[in-house]
Amino acid sequence: MPPRDANWIDGLRGVASFMVVCGHICTAFVPWLHAPAKDPQTAPRLFQLPFFRLAVGGRTAVALFFLITGYVNAIGPIGKSRAGNTDIAFQGIARSALARSGRLVLPTMIATFITWFFAQTNVYFMIRHVDATWIRQGWMRQEPTLWLAFKMLFKAEVETWTKGWNPYDGTQWTLHLFLEGSMIVYLTMLATILVRPRARYITYAVLYLYFWQQGEGLAIGALKGLNIVTGMFVAELHNQFKDTATSVLPAPIPPIMIIFGLFLAGYPQDAQSNARWSQTMSDIMHSIAPKDSDVRRYWDHLGASILLLGIFFSRPARRLLTSPTFNFLGRVSFPVYLMHNTLIKSVLAWLVYLPSWLNPRHNAKGEQMDLQRGGTLHIFVAVAIFYYVLYRCASWWVQYIDPWCAKVVSTATRWAMGESAPVANGGPILRRSSGAGEKKSVLPS
């Protein structure tokens, strides 16, 4: 395997973070794209069709994040287990489990502080009046006193991890699930580090069936559990095939898997009955998923999993994902995820709605009406500027904030484990070894 191929998982993570941002922008300004058609009698628009509708594929991107979490956290322990280095594997699991909370919580706390500060300095005042419902729902008031402001900050910092909700940034609801998913990986690795690979495969199968039937809960089944287990399974495949993975299957099979996975991942979020293809998918999944489960999450999981497997077995796909552009997207994926909602509610909202704010409309009673967005060209230009600002800020985050967070987490971990000397140099906050033959990858979750 060429050296650059080893970093393909970072490129995939970068694509997933970009999809999340794109999905939220589309949810804000063109929410009708979540349906496969306006109604059963109306022909769909271009971006309501399969494949094209991945422009609003934020749900699939979240599934990819969980798959990647399972993959990168399991690949090292599995490699050491197969090599017989069980003592080193146990030490690695212990260290990772101890440091994991800091790697997620500390950057998230900083991001929450930033969006809280924006709210308290009234940066979000405009979004209370915009016509984009998704953006308007993210408005938080400026607290009347400093005491109440800090009280709300403390509440947001704590409830992100206890209740899974941050009132200042609703997109952080997945982060406590990423932490729980990591702990599932560590616990599974701890229980199976001494067993043969075949026994671990059986363990994955049992866990998969368990989480499949837990589908009634959003977080327990199809969103978190199935993707985490599948990620561990792919990590096992990596350690089994190593450099030969991209030559295991006949050449046409991986691209077929990728295309099929992309199709499944396009299962619409709303109004599935408006198109025959999505209604058929709905009927199929309702017949095999647990009663009253969210079948959308099952299709998200299956689509993302088949896509991941297709890329895993495909040399051209890996090469594409290791290009400089995708490597950059991967490096900044976590800060992009943390900051995009804050910048949508500030930078993007100001760009889109400032002309309307300068000349607001009022109804017959003299009450201000919702601010109106600009024309299509205006929005495209605003979105382009927003993306530039977002990724520029993410680059600064990786350059300045990540090393500081890494130092804090490393120092705390060394203190907790009674170590007097550093075990590694500083670097991006979510950097960890991914096993033999792999470069280090930057985790977003």
From TrEMBL:
The keyword Transmembrane helix applies. It comes from the Eukaryota. GO terms for molecular function: acyltransferase activity, transferring groups other than amino-acyl groups. It comes from Sporormia fimetaria CBS 119925. Residues 7-357 form the Acyltransferase domain. Keywords: Membrane, Transmembrane, Transmembrane helix. Coiled coil: none annotated. This is Acyltransferase 3 domain-containing protein. The chain crosses the membrane at residues 12-32, 52-72, 104-127, 173-195, 216-235, 247-267, 334-354, 375-398. Signal peptide: none annotated.
